[in-house]
Amino acid sequence: MRVRPALPVVGLGLSALLLTSCFSAPDTTEEAGAEETGDRIGVAMLNPPRSGLTPFSDDAFKLARWSTGETLVVLDEAGDAQPALATAWEQVDPNTWRFEIRQGVTFHDGTPLTVDQVVAALTAATQASPKPRILDGVDLTATADPDAPETAVLVRTGDIDPLVPQRLSSPQLSILAAAAYGADGVVDPVGHGTGPFELVSVQGTSSAKLDRYDGYWGDKAKIAGIDVNFVPDGTARAAALRTGTADVVEAIPVSQASLLDEDQIFEVPMPRTNTLYLNTERGVFADPAMRAAARDAVDRDKIVDTVYEGRADVAQGLLGPALPWAAEGRPARTETAAGNPAGQEIVLATFTDRAELPEVAVQLQQQLEAAGFTVRQEVREYSQIESDALAGAFDAFILSRATVLDSGDPVAYMYSDFSCEGSFNIAQLCDPQIDEALQTASRIPAGDDRRRAIMAAEKLILESDAAIPMLHERVIQGESGDFTGVARDSRERELIRATTAATTAAS
Description:
Layout: H1 14-20, E1 40-45, H2 60-65, E2 73-75, E3 81-83, E4 86-93, E5 96-101, H3 115-127, E6 140-144, E7 152-157, H4 164-167, E8 197-203, E9 207-212, E10 225-230, H5 234-242, E11 248-249, H6 254-257, E12 265-278, H7 288-297, H8 300-307, E13 312-314, H9 324-328, E14 345-351, H10 356-370, E15 374-380, H11 382-390, E16 396-402, H12 411-418, H13 432-443, H14 448-464, E17 467-479, E18 483-484, E19 501-502
Parallel strand pairs: 1-10, 1-11, 14-15, 14-16
Antiparallel strand pairs: 2-3, 4-5, 5-7, 6-7, 8-9, 9-10, 11-17, 12-16, 12-17, 13-17, 18-19
Helix pairs in contact: 1-5, 12-13, 13-14
């Protein structure tokens, strides 16, 4: 059995010592054979649970990354729905979808997966307060199919929604056993999932333990379990990888990456774009020629090299390499000719919560001033600046923005940021042609036609110069090399899989 050494404290600050000292000792289970072993994998995660691991919160993504909570469908790399706890589905009318439920599945507490429990789990999600983010603005109901009450579920939406299967892939709609759902609305996932690993204990915000579930409906896990520690401090997480205290480490800071072996670092493209939003409604950038001047002034390569130390991707559009179909389908666009800023003053704003953004602001100020603008910066905490940004108080605003939400589809992001009635329209953009393109895309079922419509909408948004995408972020994942089959997932839904296995025999 592999034994991890104690984490050394020399060279770490007190905060790192306190955080890393919480790592649990490895399990000493004997090997179970060549395929299934007694090896356990240690994982250091960035964020501790914030809502008691209820699936109705962002904690649901931890349940997915540990392969303990499962959904009716999952998404492939392109964002298309694939079978999971549902084996097939079809749209039976504009507002209704029918899902065939997988037979022979048991929850970790030994109870069977049934149609009634799927209905109960989805209904609990619709009644949660607050609702899971994936159900914002969605009127969804689930019932047993009266023609096949033992095997199929009908999911209905108030409005026509071509993305119902993708929506049901959200970890926030994981299906748990009946005993998980308390009368007070509290949901306890411990011992109540269906995945290859059973969550057996949680120690508050410090650690969690999962064991292999031998009754899993699919291929059983190759390792005996997962030992999770929550380590918010980036220096401590990197130290855990260097010393062998953890086998997999989430979100290693760029500043720590150079201290690790390059063969232990994996950069995963994120569906997140660092974008300069320009106020199209009033001020200097109400003039398209001035927006074009700002566009031409931005040196993306320099920002990536200096602020991100080369660990980001230069943006060619709003959607980056985390969506591999975007680059292939991006049409050529027509650019507005740039005007002469002639010293016009602009206010460039951003926030401090993401450490790199103030540094990006410094670079952009220099670049915009070199182009002829006079630039004044305004930098605050996000909670203190968001309302002003949404009200159009600034000429330009730097934002790191997720470009796909839980459905794996970027239409919702584009609509909120660039439609006339968008709730997050920092650019104050209102273009009927863009609105029409977004509405067209939203009505098309998932697949190649929808993706082409999305790229047509992106083309119009970029031609407006309301948003100047600068770079696509990456997350740095650390791996010891002692295990294979660890997922490197841009959507952060997978991490430890049933196929994750030790690279060498335990010793």
